[in-house]
Model the fold of this input.
Amino acid sequence: RGHRGSADFGLACACLRERAHSYSWEDLLSMAGDGDAMEVDAEAPAPAAEATEAAEAAEAPAPAPAAAEEAPAAAAEAPAPAPAAPVIEVTPAGPSQDETCEAAVKATLDAPDNAGERIRNAAWAEAPDDVADCVELAARQLLYEALDKEDQTTAKKIVAVLVDHTVHCEQCGDRGPVLNVAHKLLEDCIDAAPSTNADGWWDLVESHKGALTENPAIFKAGKFILLRLCNSLLKRLSRTRQATLCGRILMFMAAAWPLSEKSALNMKGLCHTDNVTEFESADQFDAQNADDDFDDAGDGAPKEDYDTYSGFWSVQKYLSNPPSCFKDVKGFLAAVDVTCSALERTACTPDEFERERAAMVERQAQPMNVEPEDDTQQMLGSQKYLTNSRLLRIQLRDPQLRTQVCSQLYMVLDYLRRELESMNARDWASEPKARVRKILAGTPPTGPEAAGSLDLLLEHEVQWAAWKKKGCPPFEKEPLPEKPKQKRPYYAPPLPEVLKRKQARRDALEKKRKDEEPPLEEKCRRLASQIPTLKEHLQEWRDADDPAEDIDDEYHPRHDPVWKFRALRLVMKEKLPWFADMHDANIEVAVDKMFPDRPKRTDRPAPPPPPPKPVVKKKRVREESPPKEEDAKRRKDDRDESPRSRRERSARDRP
Done:
């Protein structure tokens, strides 16, 4: 790293890489476990050479019969061959322009059209056995010269043409180290650049995000280099002055790597214990507040004592490591109680809250002027508050500090509540959690919205914690292979199943009919609107008697009993006094009263009179005489009862 501008350094790296590429990962791991095996044989055959020898052996003619007898014994001693890897068709390189790889890279800086194809053709012509190292060595030489001259424009052009070369090699079917050359050079550029100039280089990474991360083959070849690049850059950047750039890097990592990436899951559940909040001791607090005339807030309120000050800032020790709260429950609850009491004591009044809300609504209604952020605005977005005791009274009234402290307490208390619930222990976190939420909701101007957002966030946190307890199974699933469509064999279902299906179809039709059928009230309303008046109903009789209509007698309404019944119902409903003249329910009387001047037909015979009702003679039934025993008993009762009772009974029995 110290001799990055030297060509010898790049050459040494290329030689070491070439030597390491001649061994597989299994060989390197076995060497790492055995101290004697670390001495690598320089003349060991490369995997490509072994594959060539195997291919030549496959094309050799069959052995003679004498040699064939020895073949089974040799085959028994030889290990079983490994399964063959899938073969990827590689497009051969085109004709070169009689230039070296370094000259091709330099020429494409000014004419970037077909840069990848031109560099690939030159590398295959110069070093067909080691294309990746040839391209990397040529590009490093030019890159280091540009970095020594602090020529960032040329360095960015070199990285851009190498990204184009990587994409072209992947399209041609190349695999292996040739696909991560651009990642290595990009890492060297960002490592060599100062942290104050990291924005420009990260813009270059984001401009080539699609080429470096969306292609599976290219991303697989260089994902570890990208991960190392992002982590090293995050360590160098300031989280307060360069918060925006840190957020861009984190968003890039979240979009490039899947959710199940093990390096970003914190499988051990470690906490950020390095974040230590230091505050004043009791002696320092007394020295700072020795001046009684000093009024920080300017409202004449009494100053906060050391117990409030220490309790307010000591709670940060528990928030940076939530599992430690189980070891010191009393201390944690005491610090939370002191913090909540201080925040409740300095809370705004309802009138102040309404004024702040109204001012926020007014600001939101005004048009926003978007201005570029500077370093000061970035610093204010992620600051660490001062712990000076003379600032405490002002900080307790600051809405931003109140929101942040309450949000931290709310999330940690919810975590402790879920842990206590899983351990079936006494729940001592729900009460302070409700207290903190009330304080947060009463903080102007966006307190209710912040509390609702935290509730939604904690609902998602439950699902996230359950997913991590299951070992973080991958969300991504391979698509199922498409099965060829086969002709379905004939299947005759049994009779009960056929009947069941028919009944299901009938039920579905009946349900559909009921859904489409109007309710009972609507039906009644429709029927009521369809009932004709008496005049409309009797008009049919009038038309049938009209000679001009010439209607046959067999179609006369008087032959329809249903029509006559409806006519009687309508007469009863509208003209009830007419029933006195309608003997034997003669409808024609009602027609004459409704249409007195109606024409009548004289050629039609009068309706036959109704048949007389048969007279049924009643048979006289002879009463049976009561039995002798009952007659004797009745006579005895008559003798025993008084004359008055006998007269009353005779009057009752008299018809």
